[in-house]
Design a protein that fits this description.
Length: about 290
């Protein structure tokens, strides 16, 4: 199932600009009725996979339908309590940066205010011109959990989505935690929807590609993760309680702009597209940060 948040156009059965939750079915999206508020997707996920599947089936059977081409897709999970990410988790990315393999996985926070939609603009901030892309598989947690064993980790996953771990490199390198350089507003595009695990048999066998202005920049596979999704969940849940809607961004393959010669950084007018096999694609234009 592909669970989306979207705004329908005015005249498409209701007022335009109203956020809704729906299930994507071919070239249409069917509204899910069992959501108290479209921003409360976390509560829907917390009801568990059976309830989520039932809500999806009800939507497909009788929910109001909208042409997918006529809606604006929003961030599928707008309010995660945590947006966690791992650095240097692909061997080819280690090699291109000249880094040594970490003795312990390197995790950092992306502040949740960075979350934005799958087609919304990425800002080049006033304070930096070193804005980079990182195509990544995002894992969304589906139930409150702690001390999850790797073998049990698939059972706490609500689904998967595409993440662009946009990075402001100079700000990242200034801080040992990397958080400041990873958390600028608009620097967490996610989407285009949440794909439930029944449609992703193996998250460790997916191609992941990134294009900038139509030029292929990253071409990798999630099979090359050094620390796989289940190991990441085990480690993170040892430290803190994971909540429904929390996002774990699982690392990026080689091809990032900062490691190229010459270096490639995003500029206003660029378009970044990231596609993950079996999940979908997000595509974001790049603009200069609007001045106050």
């Amino acid at each position: 199932m592909r669970l989306a948040r979207f705004e329908a156009e005015a005249g498409d059965g209701a007022a335009g600009g109203v956020a809704r939750v729906g299930v994507v079915d071919g070239d249409e999206v069917a509204e899910v009725a069992e959501v108290a508020a479209p921003d409360d997707v976390n509560a829907l996920l917390a009801r568990g996979p059976e309830a989520l599947a039932a809500a999806g089936e009800a939507a497909l059977a009788g929910g109001a339908r909208h042409p997918l081409a006529g809606v604006r897709l929003l961030a599928p999970v707008p309010k995660p309590s945590k947006f966690l990410a791992i650095g240097l988790n692909y061997l080819d990315h280690l090699e291109e940066t000249g880094a040594t393999r970490p003795e312990f996985p390197i995790f950092f926070n992306k502040q949740v205010s960075c979350v934005t939609g799958p087609h919304d603009p990425i800002h080049v901030p006033v304070v930096s011109g070193m804005v980079d892309y990182e195509g990544e598989l995002g894992v969304v947690i589906g139930r409150r959990c702690r001390h999850v064993r790797a073998a049990d980790a698939p059972g706490v996953v609500a689904g998967y989505l595409v993440v662009n771990d946009v990075s402001v490199r100079d700000w990242q390198f200034r801080s040992p935690t990397m958080t400041l350089g990873k958390s600028f507003d608009t620097h967490g595009p996610i989407g285009p929807w949440l794909v439930t695990p029944d449609d992703v048999p193996d998250p460790h066998a997916l191609s992941i590609r990134t294009w900038v202005n139509g030029e292929l920049m990253q071409d990798g596979t999630t099979a090359d993760m050094l620390s796989d999704c289940w190991a990441q969940i085990e480690l993170l849940s040892t430290v803190c309680t994971l909540e429904p809607g929390d996002i774990i961004s699982t690392g990026t393959p080689a091809g990032v702009g900062v490691a190229r010669d010459p270096q490639v950084f995003l500029r206003a007018g660029d378009v970044v597209r990231i596609e993950i096999e079996g999940i979908g694609a997000i595509e974001n234009p790049v603009i200069d940060e609007p001045r106050p």
